Amino acid sequence: MSLLQLEGTPKTPKVEFIDAPMSLALSGRSIPENSIEFYKPLMDWVDAHLSDSSSNPIEVSIRLEYFNTSSSKCLMDFLKRIEKSPVNATILWYYEEEDEDMLEAGEDYDAIIDIPFRLIATSA
Amino acid sequence: MENRLDAVQASKLQKKRIVHVAIELLQNLHHHSASPKEKIVFSIHETNSNRWTVRSQNPVKPEAQKPLEDRWTQLKSLNLEALRAQRMKQISKHERSLHGGGGIGLNEILRKSDGSAEMNFSKSQSDVVVTFIAELPLRS
Asked: How far is B67 from chain A (nearest CA, A)?
């Protein structure tokens, strides 16, 4: 089993990528000063593990409270990698029910990326 | 800051917007300030019981003034929907700025402050200083 697990910090999200069964989850805050450096191992993991078209459908859970603009670009790169991979993925985009900005962000990624998105309101 | 926003009962959405603008302005200072560093200023204060003002000030290279003014003028001419559309276009491009954001920061500052952010320049003999002021309500 291959695992990429990073604890969340006040500036970076919790990361839980597991390959058996495959699941990818990001949660918390993403406001690192150098987002490219933070997201590099995540991109590498995706490139190494999402190459098998015979794998079962996977869910990618994104539950972010805040993300800065450089993280928004990294998230786009991350989602594009999943889009280009042969796996059958669904993005679960969680947002707090009164957070219309995070809902809009999910809608925007949904409009750009050709992967099914589920926009899921949460109460907290 | 977040504790204080909770204490003054800011709405969740507005709290997030104020934090977001503060983060973008702080990271802007970190990435784009020129010397002298003593002229860098960042403040957040209560304008009145319903609004907070986030302000940043930093020296920039003289040659940065014109492109920054042009970019800001272009963004200020857009309504919130057009700003959103432009942001989408920018994040979907492959290009990045030197610091990874692809130049989306100014757009985000304007969007999160509902268009009520201002940018001004002041010049002295030795330097050019840019000031951003964003005023945000505590409740939507």
From this structure: 20
B15: pLDDT strictly greater than 90: yes
Q: Which two tokens stand for residue A58?
A: 């996977």
Matching residue, tokens 């993300």: A67
Q: Do A73 and B101 touch (CB under 8 A)?
A: yes
Give the nearest partner residue to B13 out of A31, A70, A99, using CB atoms.
Answer: A99
The residue extents of the domains of chain A are 35-122
> What is the rounded CA–CA span in Å between residue B101 and residue A54?
35
The mean-pLDDT minimum among B3-7, B41-45, B94-98 falls in: B94-98
Say if the Cβ atoms of A68 and B27 lie within 8 Å: yes
CA distances from B132 to A4, A49, B76, B113 (A): 39, 44, 13, 12
Instruction: Give domain limits for chain B.
Output: 2-137
Among B62, B90, B64, B95, which Cα is nearest to B78's?
B90
> A31 vs B87: CB contact, 8 Å cut-off?
no
pLDDT for A124 equals 67
pLDDT level of residue B132 (50, 70, 90 thresholds):
very high
CATH architecture of the domain with range B2-137: 2-Layer Sandwich (3.30)
CA-wise closest residue to B42 among A29, B33, B15: B33
ipTM: 0.87
**At A106, is the pLDDT very low, low, confident or very high (cuts 50, 70, 90)?**
very high
| Total CB pairs under 8 A between chain A and B | 64
